[in-house]
Design a protein that fits this description.
Blueprint lengths: L2 H8 L11 E4 L5 H7 L5 E4 L2 E4 L2 E3 L4 E4 L3 E4 L7 E3 L4 E4 L2 E3 L10 E5 L4 E6 L2 E3 L3 E6 L2 E6 L2 E3 L13 E4 L5 E3 L2 E3 L3 E6 L5 E3 L2 E12 L5 E3 L2 E12 L5 E3 L2 E3 L4 E6 L5 E3 L2 E3 L14 E6 L5 E3 L2 E3 L3 E6 L6 E3 L2 E3 L3 E6 L3 E3 L8 E2 L22 H8 L10 H12 L7 E3 L14
Parallel strand pairs: 1-2, 2-5, 3-6, 4-7, 5-8, 6-9, 7-10, 8-11, 9-12, 10-13, 11-14, 12-15, 13-16, 14-17, 15-18, 16-19, 17-20, 18-21, 19-21, 20-22, 21-23, 22-24, 23-25, 23-26, 24-27, 25-28, 26-29, 27-30, 28-31, 29-32, 30-33, 31-34, 32-35, 34-37, 36-38
């Protein structure tokens, strides 16, 4: 069992000293004093009230909010700063923290070097970061609702969850909206991200310089991009969904030795595109090598997969390309085979023949030919795409089986969509 999975089980269990007390906090002016007076591993229960200000937790504590308990940071700073390991925050409503990202304003700010923190069942409403942590280990964030600001430019917002150099993070069952990136992970290892919902933001999940991570059962909709894997390695991205994104469903940018499998990507259409080359892409592979992309469904997008700048060295097979305006766009000079161990992909526009009855066509498929490449270079000639001359050239190429010099070719296209296990 993975370390992150073990963490998911044990983070909810702290062995508390037998002398740990439960302290009722009813006076909204007494919270920081109660924190100072509490002993390590005590539990503070916040009664219905508005607790105004910024609060620092400097010892192992459990803080739980009753319905109606609210922490209001009055528009500046971080509402709660965690300056100790072994802290739990549960069932709190936190609002109105500061908007200064350079000062790391957050609803919950976890200081450098803090470990074993659990944040669950909280409701966060405000600008800048929802939860921010640096240089930590064993952080669990579960069942929170994080809402940023819908005003201003999307890049001026804070991230819902921002973790930098945090290892063994478990992030599950959160709802995150109106932020910059829903979850941003940088320079950490062994994270587990599952069952989160992202809407109205730049990217749902954004990896940068990370390794050995896993993400599944996450759903992103109405975002610029769904899942961005950048300069990372050994990521397992599987059984996620992206719906109605502008730029991409999945991005593999300079990322290696990773698996992207069993994801469903639908309706990636860039309504703001003004120039050729800015179409919505089910998947964008840029300078990424030694990855496996299989059992995914790319449908109803402007481009199924767009590949450029050294993205040739990947295994791409058993995927479904259904009703995309362009199934593939490849910018490069190589002839790239998209099959593995005699298993290709399913293409909704392909008509082949299967004489052996094994579900694989004996006819290879080239999802984009030389005419397509010509039109990519000269988009003003698109109106010629269905002209009699273009149709004749394509018919001649297929009849005489002219081997392309470059482009994507599937030598074993599938006659029907493959069956994919669903979680």
């Amino acid at each position: 069992m993975r370390l992150a999975s073990l963490l998911s089980i044990f983070m909810g269990i702290l062995i508390l000293p037998s002398t740990a007390a439960e302290i009722q906090v009813k006076d909204p002016l007494s919270l920081q004093l109660k924190i100072q007076q509490a002993h390590s591993y005590d539990t503070l229960v916040l009664h219905p009230a508005v607790f105004q200000g910024q609060f620092i937790i400097d010892k192992p504590l459990i803080i739980i909010g009753k319905p109606g308990a609210e922490i209001d940071a009055l528009g500046y700073g971080s509402a709660i700063t965690i300056a100790s390991s072994d802290v739990k925050l549960r069932s709190l409503k936190i609002v109105n923290w500061g908007a200064d990202q350079y000062e790391l304003n957050a609803a919950i700010l976890i200081n450098d070097g803090i470990n074993n923190v659990l944040i669950e069942n909280n409701e966060l409403w405000g600008p800048s970061f929802g939860i921010r942590a640096d240089n930590g280990d064993f952080l669990s964030i579960k069942n929170n609702v994080i809402t940023g600001s819908s005003q201003g430019h999307i890049l001026d917002r804070g991230d819902g969850i921002y973790l930098k150099r945090v290892d063994n993070a478990v992030i599950q069952f959160n709802e995150i909206k109106h932020v910059r990136d829903g979850i941003y992970l940088e320079s950490g290892k062994y994270s587990l991200v599952s069952d989160n919902y992202f809407v109205n933001q730049q990217y749902g999940l954004h990896y940068m310089y990370t390794a050995h991570d896993e993400a599944f059962n996450n759903y992103a909709e109405d975002v610029d991009g769904g899942f961005a894997l950048m300069s990372s390695e050994k990521i397992k991205l599987h059984h996620n969904r992206v719906q109605s994104a502008q730029r991409f469903g999945v991005l593999l940018n300079m990322t290696n030795h990773s698996e992207v499998s069993a994801n469903r990507v639908n309706k990636i259409v860039n309504s703001h595109a003004k120039v050729a080359g800015s179409e919505g892409r089910g998947m964008f592979i840029y300078g990424a090598r030694d990855n496996a992309v299989f059992d995914n469904n790319f449908s109803n997008s402007e481009v199924g997969i767009y590949m450029a700048m050294g993205g040739e060295g990947n295994k791409i097979y058993r995927n479904q390309f259904i009703n995309n305006q362009a199934q593939v766009k490849y910018v490069g000079d190589s002839l790239v085979e998209w099959s593995y161990e005699r298993q290709g992909n399913y293409w909704s526009r392909f008509i082949g023949w299967d004489l052996t009855g094994n579900g694989i066509s004996e006819q290879a498929y080239q999802p984009s030919d030389q005419l397509d490449r010509l039109y990519w270079l000269y988009p003003e000639a698109q109106f010629l795409l269905k002209s009699p001359v273009a149709q004749l050239l394509r018919w001649t190429q297929h009849q005489f089986k002219i081997m392309p010099e470059s482009g994507v070719i599937d030598s074993f296209p599938m006659m029907s969509p493959p069956q994919v296990d669903r979680l």
